[in-house]
Specification:
Layout lengths: L1 H17 L3 H15 L2 H4 L1 H17 L5 H43 L24 H17 L8 H17 L7 H61 L1 H67 L2 H49 L4 H115 L4 H74 L3 E5 L2 E7 H4 L9 H14 L6 E7 L6 H21 L7 E5 L12 H7 L1 E7 L1
Length: 682
């Protein structure tokens, strides 16, 4: 049984893969067709189920997981058949609505209709399929049986219901050994939707069979009413013929009335035209207002991203609040545009109903009908164009909003990192400054101690000189008197001892001075090391500031062109198809506008160096590609110089086809390789 289930799943996947991406496209087309048939009104629950499955298929169609891709393909197939069932139900119920309207007209004309429509299914009916695969199979079988009972075998292709029964048999086989099977659920769902579509088509056919008779009764009663009115008018004319004077007066009055009616019709036509022009003016005014509001939001986001990197928290918060207010205004304008489209749709639907009624009643001429049909087609074309424009603008706006959100998130992360690094550097600089001040104080103290030691040494030297003078005087006294020699000798010995003691003190003072000088030298070395660390911290701060400037430039350039960071610098990639015509080296007018914006951003940091590199694909000879890449690189460099970039800050080189970024085997890959890159460094 497991092998059988695997085989069925493989067959379904093979069929889906064989038609990639037809299943998804068919689902989207089926939803559009059901929507056009009024499924969102007359088959709401079925339409929403189909739309949900189509969204799931769209979101997982290109998943990296094979199981997700297979599930997406099954959901796309389910969305297609569910949308077809919703469309069939919408056509059935809308036909019944038309029949009810015709019956109301018949009663208004004094007649009656004996046509009784079969019980209708609610547009919002909820289908309970159970939680197990066998319950879903039972639901599918019930839907097929209901279609057969309604006579679907005579009204829809035989192979439809036969296919549904085959799906049911396959679902039973693959789920025979398990309570829940994804493949079994898928097959049961397809069988159920085929059965429901067949049932709705059978009921639609029954309603369509009753519709011509009701239309004929309504037309007959309308003609009878018209004939009664004509008979009354003939009686009036006969009475008027008997009264010639009254006839003349009636004719004059009738002519005046017709002129008044013609004038009223013309006034109404002018009023309709004026209303139409006013509606178109409102649409255009709202469009211009939306474009202006989107431009304001984009500019505010640009300032917001810049402020995140450079401004205070209060300025960043003010800009964020400003963006919220502008987005509220933008949503209000978008709501007005949707309301305009809905009003136009309602007006077109009303005109289509009036025209259909007029055609059925024959109350207006073919020329007027043709004119109204042309007007209706023009209105529908305007409505379709407006809707397409709104959908395209909404998609582009959604992509832009996602890009802005990603850019803001990245800028906030970079700001937090930069603030943390700056705080760490400031702390390190403050620590180094405190260490330098402490070392300076120690050096000053050591200098004072050294000066004090020098003074003490000088005092000791003076004492030594005095002692020597006393010794000389004593020797002279010894020569003069031998009698006092012994006493003088004793005094001399004492003086010599004092001199030796003084000399020892002098040597000790000199040693202390030398030690103090060594401490001073050590302190000065520590101060020099601290100063070097301080200089290194200042240099690191300067590098961080340069990185912040380059980051701001990168953020601004990212709004203009594709950017990326590599080891060799910031890379700005400009597509060759945007800058140059095929095989040409002259810049396009649009390219000059882009390069002017880039030059404006590069001028904000004079320290930047720009290397312009030209690249080509591998079509043609190596020499030709090399020459083409050099000329294109020089053309970009010359324009940037003319736009204000210093010529000594920018160089140009051609690299030919030596550095591809994509394969040259496909047209798309070769288009990516034809490019000009700006390598920006500091």
């Amino acid at each position: 049984m497991h092998i059988l289930r695997t085989l069925v799943l493989a067959i379904l996947v093979a069929v889906s893969v064989e038609a990639q991406p037809t299943d998804l496209v068919m689902a989207q087309q089926a939803l559009a067709s059901a929507d056009a048939a009024g499924a969102q009104v007359f088959a709401k629950s079925l339409y929403e189920d189909a739309a949900y499955r189509a969204r799931f298929a769209q979101e997982n169609w290109s998943s990296n997981k094979p199981s997700k891709r297979n599930e997406a393909q099954m959901r796309a197939i389910e969305a297609t058949i569910a949308a077809e069932a919703a469309g069939a139900k919408a056509r059935w119920l809308s036909t019944n609505t038309a029949i009810h309207g015709l019956q109301a007209d018949i009663q208004r004309f004094g007649g009656s209709s004996n046509v009784t429509l079969l019980a209708e299914e609610s547009p919002t009916v909820e289908f309970s399929r159970g939680s197990a695969t066998k319950d879903r199979i039972a639901t599918a079988q019930s839907a097929v049986d209901q279609a057969k009972a309604a006579g679907a075998l005579d009204l829809v292709p035989d192979n439809d219901l036969r296919n549904a029964e085959r799906y049911i048999d396959s679902a039973k086989r693959v789920s025979r050994s398990t309570a829940n099977s994804d493949v079994g659920d898928h097959l049961a769902y397809r069988a159920e939707m085929i059965g429901r579509r067949a049932f709705y088509l059978a009921r639609l056919a029954q309603s369509n069979r009753a519709l011509p008779g009701i239309q004929l009764d309504r037309t007959r009663l309308a003609q009878a009413a018209s004939e009664r009115q004509a008979a009354a008018e003939r009686a009036q004319r006969e009475e008027a013929e008997r009264r010639s004077v009254a006839l003349q007066q009636a004719l004059v009055a009738e002519q005046a009335s017709r002129q008044a009616q013609a004038a009223e019709v013309e006034r109404l036509r002018q009023q309709i035209d004026e209303n139409r022009r006013a509606a178109q003016a409102r649409v255009e005014t709202d469009r211009q207002a939306r474009i202006a509001a989107e431009r304001q939001v984009d500019e505010s986001y640009s300032r917001y991203e810049t402020a995140i990197a450079t401004s205070s928290n209060s300025d960043v918060e003010n800009l964020r609040l400003q963006i919220e207010d502008q987005e509220l205004s933008l949503r209000a304008i978008q709501d007005r545009e949707r309301a305009n489209a809905e009003a136009m749709q309602a007006g077109t639907t009303r005109l289509r109903g009036d025209l259909t009624a007029a055609q059925q009643s024959g109350a207006i001429s073919p020329e007027v009908i043709s004119q109204r049909q042309a007007d209706l087609l023009a209105r529908q074309a305007e409505l379709d164009s407006l809707r397409q424009a709104l959908e395209s603008d909404a998609t582009a706006r959604s992509d832009r909003a996602r890009q802005q959100h990603d850019a803001v998130t990245a800028a906030q992360a970079r700001r937090q990192q930069a603030e943390a690094e700056a705080a760490a550097l400031r702390q390190k600089a403050e620590d180094a400054e405190r260490q330098a001040q402490a070392a300076q104080a120690e050096a000053q103290q050591a200098n004072a101690q050294a000066q004090q030691a020098n003074v003490q040494a000088q005092q000791a030297q003076a004492a030594t000189e005095q002692a020597q003078a006393a010794a000389q005087q004593t020797q002279a006294q010894l020569d003069q008197t031998k009698a006092a020699a012994q006493q003088t000798q004793a005094q001399l010995d004492q003086a010599q001892a004092a001199a030796q003691q003084t000399q020892a003190q002098l040597d000790q003072t000199k040693a202390a001075a030398q030690q103090t000088q060594a401490q001073l030298d050590q302190t000065q070395a520590a101060a020099q090391q601290t100063q070097a660390e301080l200089d290194q911290a200042k240099q690191l701060l300067a590098e961080r500031d340069a990185e912040a400037r380059l980051l701001r430039v990168q953020n601004e350039l990212a709004r203009i062109a594709s950017t990326r960071s590599e080891q060799r610098g910031l890379i700005v990639t400009l597509s060759g198809g945007i800058l140059f015509d095929t095989g040409k080296t002259s810049l396009k007018p649009g390219a000059k506008s882009t390069l002017t914006k880039i030059a404006k951003q590069l001028q904000t940091d004079p320290s930047l160096k720009i290397a312009v590199e030209g690249h080509t694909d591998n079509v043609g000879t190596v020499a030709k590609n090399q020459a083409l890449s050099e000329k294109r690189a020089n053309a970009v460099r010359d324009y940037l110089v003319s736009a204000g970039i210093a010529s000594d800050h920018i160089t140009a080189t051609g690299r030919g086809a030596e550095a591809p970024v994509a394969t040259n085997k496909t047209a798309a890959g070769r288009q990516h390789n034809r490019r000009v890159e700006l390598v920006i460094t500091q």
